[in-house]
């Protein structure tokens, strides 16, 4: 608690006026690069420094987190549906080499992949090729034999997979490590006991999202990563986003850092096994690597109701499924514990996205009802507030950040950005 208090003091004490925060000259250079990336310019293209977007207070908040040793660095982006309001890189991408964080630094976004998987599923529904209300067994016949804990036919639907209400069991870890395709994982999910009766409760379930990704393959006739590339990443101009970073030799991959429990110092953490490696499945639950500006383009499309730069990606009906609560009155999300004041009832789940029913103190205090988004296991966050017309994207790599949705880093960034927006 003392370290957290010190960090908050640093945020308050950091001067909000332009030029006072440490590293301001480096920040201006990074803004110029950010502008070039966001407008589709070649990597490294520069824009005039005066045109670099910056929201007052965000730089100070992120610099304070770096100086407090909470993270090595961060990339923060704030956008409307058609404009960048803020983009900044702070700190270092690699402490050992002193490589500065850049706007096009590449982060493992983990579960921020899930909304992209949801868009892939809903695109196929718009195409008339699947129905999220249909049984999974319609697309994967092996699911016909799946039984619930009470012995009844499970009859899981795609919607239940995508809202974490299916009760589907998780794969044995050792066996899953040998999988080379999404198809290889399906027998492992079916071999695991069901966790609960479908629809009875909400429980975050990786197998469900990966099963949905497999359905995308079956229906489209394309490997999941190829479908995502052709239908989402390429059209949106998400040129740095990939399931396999090795395919982009020039990518600036950010090192993840954990805190040493004894000293509090940041220490490099190895990448999580199974993600980003050639020969492993393109996992729909958390396989993507991306940059702040790239993911901002995805958020802009959702913020604009499924369209971006003259192209429609999702129908209004599909957007409704993604952005409105599909889980009834079930408490959902990662605030269902006493230490977080049990804010589970403040959230619902759409098809692949978490939805804020009602703001609450902390990370949701500056957001509007109906804000939706998703976080990632290594601290990344992206939240879209349609009422205010903005999206907040935070990119960091902190494997031991705990509940990233509830992190102080997320709160500090969003609060600083929200405070700087026009009222």
Write up what this structure looks like:
This protein is α+β, with helices and mostly antiparallel strands. It folds into two domains: 2-116 and 227-420, DD-peptidase/beta-lactamase superfamily (Beta-lactamase, 3-Layer(aba) Sandwich), CATH 3.40.710; 120-221, Methane Monooxygenase Hydroxylase, Chain G, domain 1 (Up-down Bundle). Helices cover 31% and strands 14% of the residues. It contains twelve helices and 15 strands. It has an eight-stranded antiparallel β-sheet with strand order 3-2-1-15-14-13-12-11, with helices on both faces. Strands 5-4-8 form a three-stranded mixed β-sheet. It has a two-stranded antiparallel sheet with strand order 6-7. A hairpin with a 4-residue loop joins strand 11 (347-349) and strand 12 (354-356). The longest helix has 15 residues, at 24-38. It is globular, with a radius of gyration of 21 Å. The protein starts with a helix and ends with a helix. The relative contact order is 0.16. The model is unreliable at 1-32 and 39-50 (pLDDT under 50).
